[in-house]
Design a protein that fits this description.
Blueprint (H helix, E strand, L loop, with lengths): L2 E7 L3 E8 L5 E8 L6 H11 L8 E6 L3 E2 L2 E3 L6 E3 H8 L4 E5 L4 H4 L8 E5 L9 E6 L3 E9 L2 E6 L12 H13 L13 H15 L7 H10 L4 H4 L9 H10 L3 H25 L5 E4 L2 H4 L1 H4 L2 H8 L5 H4 L4 E4 L4 H12 L3
Parallel strand pairs: 1-4, 4-8, 10-13, 13-14
Antiparallel strand pairs: 1-2, 2-3, 5-6, 6-7, 9-14, 10-11, 11-12
Helix pairs in contact: 5-8, 5-9, 6-8, 8-9, 9-12
């Protein structure tokens, strides 16, 4: 049996898994606190030693939380400097590639099974046309996929850090409030269209509509800010309800008017950005929505609030109408995509 090594390398945790080349099924996996290790090579060697009964991987793809240039990567929250050749040599691997942890998702898209995705809007994908994936989680990830003579190629993107463009007086007031509240020089797309952005939309409405602080979401907002959205930093227990975006979604589902307004505003901004990026890339091969919000807010992504904002591009509406959109609902999609890329290295 030929095996593949897949890795999802983050500042907080690292996931390593071994996959069967033919089926891409995981054969073994482990999760490690990243800060407990002096370097990634030692962690990989430890993992492979634990997989002693399985064949040594023929190829490896390690997805890292940060930019990759010339086979080198520097993680933002760790002192690790990663280099492909050094890692391959120290781990005894013949083929190893470092890829940005969001761009790598492009390589998994052609291999998705029906159980890993959910339709958002129907359409007709054009074979060979560019692909687009967006992922609204803590931030907003964006990546493109283009077909080349050697197969699908992922293109990392920083499109989420473009300028947020308000479409209405309400969005303009929101933008102004975020800039002051977060003490920003500018307001990027990601500041609104992300899980964190949904929290800030709710905070803005609470600040402008609930001066007495009586709304049930006020306590969530206070605790969310106190933990800095990092439970380890503030000592707030994961069991305590400090996740404001999740609380907003839950309150909206229960019919709370302020939460419904916050979610509607956020979905409209997300849909509009999705349409803008689809026009910029002419991603007629299809659009996928990932990130932590894709499965949790599936009904919202299928709503007219999101879909009409996606299409509302004036004369260019006809360009977007044929493009299908799907949501990736598999929580293991990152490792799966890294395994898909590792298999490509053997072709």
């Amino acid at each position: 049996m030929t095996t593949l090594l897949a890795g999802d390398i983050g500042g907080t945790k690292t996931l390593l898994s071994l996959h069967d080349q033919a089926s891409l099924e995981p054969l073994a996996s482990s999760r490690y606190p990243s800060a407990d290790w002096d370097d990634l090579g030692a962690m990989v060697r430890h993992f492979l030693a634990d997989c002693e009964g399985l064949a040594r991987p023929a190829a490896a793809c390690l997805a890292v939380a940060g930019p990759v240039h010339g086979g080198r990567a520097q993680l933002t929250n760790l002192s690790w400097t990663l280099e492909e050749q050094d890692l391959a040599r120290s781990c005894g691997l013949q083929r190893l590639e470092l890829v940005n942890d969001f761009a790598v998702l492009i390589y998994g898209l052609p291999h998705l099974e029906a159980t890993q995705v959910a339709p958002v809007r129907s359409g007709a994908a054009v074979p060979g046309a560019p692909l687009l994936i967006l992922g609204a989680g803590t931030g907003l990830g964006v990546a493109l996929g283009v077909q080349t003579s050697t197969g699908l190629q992922a293109l990392a993107s920083e499109a989420s850090h473009g300028e947020f463009a308000p479409r209405s007086q309400q969005e303009w007031e929101l933008r102004q409030w975020i800039q002051v509240d977060r003490q920003l020089e500018r307001v990027s797309i990601e500041r609104v269209v992300s899980g964190t952005g949904l929290g800030d939309v709710a905070r803005w409405l609470l600040a402008s509509r609930d001066a007495q602080g009586l709304h049930p979401l006020q306590s969530h907002a206070s605790r969310w800010l106190a933990r800095g959205q990092e439970p380890e930093a503030s000592g707030v227990s994961e069991a305590e309800p400090a996740d404001l975006p999740a609380a907003v979604a839950e309150a909206a589902a229960a019919g709370d008017a302020l939460a419904v307004e916050a979610l509607d505003l956020w979905l409209g901004a997300y849909g509009s950005v999705c349409g803008d990026l689809a026009l910029a890339s002419l991603s007629r091969g299809g659009i996928w929505l990932g990130g932590g919000t894709a499965s949790k807010l599936l009904a919202g992504l299928r709503s007219q609030r999101f879909l009409e904002a996606f299409l509302a591009k004036g004369r260019l509406r006809a360009v977007l109408e044929p493009i299908p959109i799907q949501a990736v609902i598999d929580p293991g999609f990152g490792s799966f995509s890294a395994a898909c890329r590792a298999r490509m290295l053997l072709d």
